[in-house]
Amino acid sequence: MKLSRRDALAALAGVGSASLAGCSGDGSASLPVDSLVALAETLYPSAASGHREFVETYVDGRTRGRPAEREALAETVADLNGVAREWYDSRLPELSRADRDSLLHEVGVETAAPRRDGTLAERVRRVVDDLLYAFYTSPTGGELVGTSNPPGYPGGTASYHEGR
Amino acid sequence: MSRAPSGRADLLVVGAGPAGSLVAREAAAAGHDVVVLDAGPRFDDEDRTERMAAHLRPDEGSPWPRDPERDGYTTGGRPYPLAASRVKGVGGSTLAWHGMAPRLRERDFELRSRHGVAVDWPLSYADLRPWYARAERALGVAGAADGAEGPPREEPYPMPAFPPSASDRILAEGAEAVGLSTRTAPNARNSESYDGDAACVGYGTCRPVCPSGAKYTAERTVAAAEAAGARVVDRAPVRRLRVDGDRVTGARYTTPAGEHVQEAREVVLAAGGVETPRLLLLSATGDHPDGLANSSGAVGRYFHDHLFAGVGGRVDRETRQHHVGFHTTESHAVYDEADPVVGIKLEFLNDAGPTPVGVALSDGSWGDELADRVREAYGGHLAVGALVEQLPDPSNRVRLDPETVDDAGDPVPRVEWSLDSRTRRGIERANELQRRVLEAVDADPTWTVDAETTGPAAHQMGTTRMGADPAESVVDPDCRAHDLQNLWVAGSSVFPTGGAMNPTLTIAALALRLGSRLADRLSGERD
After folding, report:
1. What domains are defined for chain B?
2. Per-domain boundaries in chain A
3. Among the partner residues A111, A150, A157, nearest to B357 by beta-carbon distance
4. Shortest alpha-carbon distance between residue A15 and chain B (Å)
5. Which of A4-18, B37-51, B367-381 bottoms out in mean pLDDT, i.e. has the lowest?
6. Cβ–Cβ below 8 Å for B324 and A157
7. Residues B412-442 pLDDT 10s
């Protein structure tokens, strides 16, 4: 199922970030979009597609007007790419999906708690959780696990009483 | 904003939750000078969605800030989770409430007469009935008069009901199979645009936060009170009431900038079932050595709550849980029975099982493995909950704990609370019915909240009970303290008994009744 800009805007609405028009950034640290898209391709189920538009829209909106947040995100991704280069000789966008998955495991993300100023594993976990939050509160993410109106998405008051 | 006192007010209200704000609105609308003091802050509307996001992320705690220095407490007997049971701030606990808004039933006012237990209210359902109708309009209640077994209504609900959910229809089959009637659950939530506020858009997180504003919170009433001229001061905890003879002259309160005294002709306490008795006890004087309004010794006693009972299971059918965050069907079928004597309201849950995002952020994995786990964890849940009545018992009480003090050096409240055999029997009966309903639709029960694992429903009641006899109650049937000429109490602390219904609509009905009478009194039309 294809993730859309509408999915990203829905996810953004669910975290209280301002709605977007244009999504061209605000002049603060540039976003490592390619790496974040590569990360999302690993984090989201293989049945999902349309990662670039979704991630770009969501992350830009999520960090818009919050330069410290944007900077922390860029730094975490840069550090993860540094480890990827060291261990796999490539940055995230150039790695296979399987290698990205292995990298995340090897860094310790699976068991880390999210922390902004923590270890690399904890900082990456925070980025991972934010991308997972976006996906599982979006209509398309919800549909992939059995609900058209996941909590956090204002999907109206019809779907709860439909079906059988 | 200035938190300095106004000149002597016509009416001082302590607490800006639903009870206090409704009283304030009534008096202010009648042209009286009204000051409302609330211990907590005023929360910004703009932060609502971020609060929801915090709620949806596991381990982030309550989205409503707590202040353990200001709000310390201790417990005795069964632990009572007070911090998790209330919100301090403008709007009070309606900021976090579920929004269920049923009336009490006729039986709830007549427990002594009908069953020889507890006490009767000094009011009947018929006395409160017109105020219930006004309360439903004030809160904006969506409902349908479809219950065959009453209680009687005089007019339709202000808004059409939310239709029964997909899981309601499954559970209704089970209820019918075991002979339980069902009815629409009344919701203080907009099923359509109401009085300038938008209809529900299905965020699914009503409890503890509604980002759309479709769920009633007392912030709406505060806004109406302010529009009518009331002055509402936040971050202004009242520390003591001041008394001269049999009259309260005002209240001493603190602010981030200092200490003040607000004087007033009439004073209403609306600080909830714990802080209202605590303030009365803290305000003891030489003439009132056991606390204000406490010649009966009942202040703080008869503390009771509703107990939650529930059974959940799974079926191999689509149950559409968590699409919305409120109930749409309930059953009063056994509510009026004599055995057990306590009331039981059954509720069909629409939020059984985990949320997808909750699973996703707590599992640790990602990719297809995570999606499979989320899908498996999310689907097919069904659950029947219940509120079970607890009868008032004088040994269940709120008292002052001199061993522990708050940020102002005052003793914190100590909640001493336990469960009696009647309540346990009610929980067992609820569990039995819940299991039978689930088994009738081939759902194997997978979890039970029983008499051992139960917890309170955050409905603190009874601690300034209403009654006609000054020797046995704190306030009279008008909610005025027996001992003081101008001190009144609004809120569930005046309930002599609490039935098994969520209390807020009854709180609102009593507050509107009190507000109207105070407005008349201040206008010189009474007394």
Report:
1. 1-141+188-271+479-527 (3.50.50.60), 145-185+307-388+420-453 (3.30.410)
2. 5-18+28-154
3. A150
4. 5
5. A4-18
6. yes
7. 999 999 999 999 999 999 999 999 999 999 9
